[in-house]
């Protein structure tokens, strides 16, 4: 009896947590199908009555959504690509080469996790400004081509490869690049894909840094474009903003569903290997 | 000449010495086994040959060339690891030809060598299997195959059979010897298993705490161990080592006295104490009145083909072993023990080294 009661309590707690975390998603979806008056008259009613596609028509017509999708994709793609390349190379170097100060260097790299973004924004902004990259996607991309977390993930994944495999390759006279290409990369495929998705989604959703760099509306990413509808300057077209939000959320979601098994695989392995 | 020569090779990690002054030669095309308990430095020594471990002092020569600073890939070595080290993302064929492909060998030649090796190890039909789907014995054969296709003059094996079950191990031992006879190379084999060492090695190098104890043929290692460590490491049960004092021409231990034959009397003259060694199977159980020694039986064990019996000699224990299981002896019985003096060995009581009889010197 007692267990049953506590189970009920936990279920209520869990359901409440689920509602709280799903609510913004539900709000986004329902508001995107409501007209403006409905958004304000019944913000808590998740069912639009009558549902309308006007917001989406607006997004696709009046507002050049494909341009924003293109901008966002361009930035997210190159940020992901560069982060992966640098993480693989650095992670591999930390595993493959023995050099003096290797652990020291690795640990100091880990320390960069603790530097808050706000501290980095000023110097990065000034740097990009001196390079004349403000208001271009390159200005957004350049400071983001290396990622400590990515290096950490790749190094951990490659450390899990049994040493005799490296030694066998060494006996065959395989050089560093052959070992990386033929041995390491195929064996860390899952964590690599997981890291790639993480980089892509983070960059896709990024708001603050692109906001500083990109001034011109034609350069905006989706997150910035959405703000045009709900900010002081753009007014409060919640319905349209939420339709943009839905469009923004879709690509990462699709990407995640597509690569889901690699991510789960990787986290599962991490769990076993500790 | 594809020999391997250790010239005063020394290795330490910081202040900790792991290999002490190795001086010996592995001859071209011989099968040499490094044998010793875990932590004795046998794997480290093998890894120095492969080039995975740096040599702190001394020189290592392979085929007359000093290789201390030569990368593993330049040493022309084939190696089999304890874990087999197969590439998990490749199938059997790709594993076998990996090295040849890296070295950009002619595809026709790759094909020829791989087919030959696969046939030699009875792996036909498994070429395109994923390695994780193979059994332990098959993985081990794939690892051997990968080493064979290299056709290297040096072949290193680091406990390659220790992950197999007992029956497979015997088969694999025979296979290894057969392959080596068919395709000779300078083979260095590391194991802690004395049966493997005795059956595979043409010579055995016994290592203990980073020091070479003895390097000799299996027969010599067994019959004439260089010191008490080798004597106690080889054989199951090991050689009996009984501490005894010398009283004139007599050996005294646990209140029993044995008259030494003339040869030993001369050799051991001047010593007060000595360690007497004899293999268990060289001691025979006889009636209490006939024996050279009399001792109570502590414990008798029959394992079908063998009978192992232990006797008490004061505080020390003496084992006998016999394949003649007619002998009916039980705990507490007092029996006589006899042996032939030719089978007796003596060791220095202080440093454990074997005392060579005068007439053999």
The radius of gyration computed from the alpha-carbon positions of chain A, rounded to a whole number of angstroms, is: 23 Å
Helix content of chain A: over 70%
**End-to-end C-alpha gap of chain B:** 33 Å
Average pLDDT of chain A works out at 87
Instruction: Give the overall shape of chain B.
Output: elongated
Looking at CATH, which topology of the largest domain in chain B would you report?
Answer: Rossmann fold
- Main β-sheet of chain A, in a few words? none
| CATH topology term of the largest domain in chain A | MetI-like fold
Largest interface comes to: A-B, 16 and 24 residues
Helix/strand class of chain A? mainly alpha
Number of strands of chain B: 21
Low-confidence stretches of chain B: none
Biggest sheet architecture of chain B: 6 strands, mixed
User: Strand order of the main beta sheet of chain B, please?
Assistant: 6-7-8-3-9-10
Segments of chain A where pLDDT lies below 50 for 5+ residues?
A: 270-274
Classified in CATH, the superfamily of the largest domain in chain B is: P-loop containing nucleotide triphosphate hydrolases
Q: Please give the CATH class of the largest domain in chain A.
A: Mainly Alpha
Q: What value does the Rg of chain B take, in angstroms?
A: 25 Å
């Amino acid at each position: 009896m007692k267990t049953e009661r506590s189970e009920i309590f936990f279920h209520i707690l869990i359901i409440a947590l689920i509602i709280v975390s799903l609510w913004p998603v539900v709000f986004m979806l329902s508001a995107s199908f409501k007209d403006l008056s409905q958004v304000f008259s019944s913000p808590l009613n998740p069912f639009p009555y009558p549902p309308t596609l006007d917001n989406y028509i607006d997004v696709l017509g009046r507002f050049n959504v494909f341009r924003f999708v293109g901008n966002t994709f361009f930035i997210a793609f190159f940020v992901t690509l560069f982060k992966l390349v640098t993480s693989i190379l650095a992670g591999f170097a930390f595993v493959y080469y023995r050099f003096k100060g290797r652990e020291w260097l690795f640990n100091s790299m880990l320390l960069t996790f603790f530097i808050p973004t706000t501290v980095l924004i000023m110097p990065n902004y000034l740097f990009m400004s001196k390079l004349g990259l403000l208001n271009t996607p390159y200005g957004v991309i350049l400071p983001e081509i290396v990622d400590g977390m990515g290096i950490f993930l790749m190094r951990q994944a490659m450390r899990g490869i049994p040493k005799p495999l490296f030694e066998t390759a060494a006996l065959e006279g395989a050089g560093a690049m052959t070992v990386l290409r033929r041995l390491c990369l195929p064996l860390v495929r899952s964590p690599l894909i997981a890291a790639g998705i993480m980089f892509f989604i983070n960059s896709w959703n990024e708001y603050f840094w692109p906001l500083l760099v990109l001034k011109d509306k034609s350069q905006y990413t989706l997150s910035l474009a959405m703000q045009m509808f709900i900010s002081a300057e753009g007014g409060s077209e919640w319905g349209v903003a939420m339709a943009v939000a839905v469009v923004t959320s879709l690509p990462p979601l699709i990407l995640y569903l597509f690569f889901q098994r690699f991510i789960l695989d990787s986290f599962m392995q991490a769990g076993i290997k500790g | 000449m594809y020999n391997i020569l250790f010239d005063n090779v020394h290795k330490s990690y910081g202040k900790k010495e792991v290999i002490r002054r190795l001086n010996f030669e592995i001859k071209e095309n011989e099968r040499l086994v490094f044998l010793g308990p875990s932590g004795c430095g046998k794997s480290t020594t093998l890894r120095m040959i492969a080039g995975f471990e740096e040599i702190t002092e001394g020189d290592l020569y392979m085929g007359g060339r000093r290789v201390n600073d030569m990368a593993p890939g330049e040493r022309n070595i084939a190696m089999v690891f304890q874990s087999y080290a197969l590439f998990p993302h490749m199938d059997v064929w790709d594993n076998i030809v990996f090295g040849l492909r890296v070295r950009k060998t002619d595809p026709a030649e790759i094909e020829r060598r791989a087919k030959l090796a696969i046939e030699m190890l009875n792996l036909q039909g498994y070429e395109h299997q994923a390695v994780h789907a193979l059994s332990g014995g098959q993985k081990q054969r794939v690892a051997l195959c990968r080493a064979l296709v290299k056709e290297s003059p040096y072949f290193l094996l680091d406990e390659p059979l220790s992950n197999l079950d007992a029956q497979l191990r015997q088969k694999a031992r025979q296979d290894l010897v057969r392959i080596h006879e068919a395709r000779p190379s300078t083979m260095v084999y590391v194991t802690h298993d004395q049966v493997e060492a005795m059956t595979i090695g043409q010579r055995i190098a016994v290592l203990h705490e980073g020091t070479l104890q003895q390097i000799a043929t299996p027969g010599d290692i067994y019959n004439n161990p260089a010191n008490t460590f080798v004597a106690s490491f080889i054989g199951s049960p090991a050689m009996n080592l009984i501490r005894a004092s010398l009283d004139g021409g007599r050996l005294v231990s646990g209140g029993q006295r044995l008259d030494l034959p003339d040869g030993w009397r001369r050799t051991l003259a001047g010593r007060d104490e000595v360690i007497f060694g004899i293999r268990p199977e060289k001691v025979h159980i006889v009636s209490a009145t006939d024996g050279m020694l009399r001792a109570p039986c502590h414990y008798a064990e029959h394992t079908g083909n063998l009978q192992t019996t232990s006797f008490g000699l004061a505080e020390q224990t003496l084992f006998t072993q016999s394949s003649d299981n007619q002998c009916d002896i039980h705990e507490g019985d007092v029996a006589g023990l006899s042996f032939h003096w030719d089978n007796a060995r003596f060791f220095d009581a202080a440093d454990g080294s074997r005392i060579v009889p005068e007439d053999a010197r």
